[in-house]
Amino acid sequence: MDRDEELLRGRIYGEDHDHPRPGPKPGRTYAELVGGPLDGLLLDITGWTADEIQTGVALMTELGQFPGGRALYDPRPGERNRWDWSGDTP
Fold first, then answer.
1. What pTM value is reported for the model?
2. pLDDT the model gives residue 19
3. pLDDT in tens, 31-72
4. Which of 18, 41, 62, 67 is most exposed by smallest CB count within 10 Å?
C-alpha cells in the first residue's frame, strides 16, 4: 500500500484530509468504498432511503481516470455497507 492509499483508508469521503477526527463517528452509518480511486474511504449514508442506496453514487474526485470527474460506486448485492467501484466518468 502506498502513502496515498494509507492516508485515505478509514477516512470519510468529503471530509478534509487534516480533520482532527478523520474516522467514523458514533451513531452514523457508513458504506465502505471498494476498488477504484476512492478505495478504502467511507461514505456517510446516514438517513439515506433504500431507493437512494440502491441507486448508487457518482462521487467527485481528482484521483480517477478523469481529473475533476466522478467515480461510480454501487452497493454490493446483499451487503448494504460495501459499495463496489464500477468505473469513472468525466
1. 0.82
2. 66
3. 999 999 999 999 999 999 999 999 999 999 988 889 889 999
4. 18
Query: Got the DSSP string for 36-84?
Result: STTTT-EEE-TT--HHHHHH-EEEEESSSSSTTEEEEEEEETTEEEEEE
| 8 A C-beta contact, residue 80 and residue 46 | no
CB 60 within 8 A of CB 78: no
Which residues, 6+ apart, have CB-to-CB distance to 26 below 8 Å? none
| CA atoms within 13 A of residue 62's CA, in its CB half-sphere | 2
Cα torsion at 89, 87, 77, 32 (round to 10°)? -90
Amino acid at the residue 33: L
Strands 30-34 and 79-89: parallel
The separation between the first and the last C-alpha atoms of the chain, rounded to the nearest angstrom, is 27
Rg (CA), the chain: 13
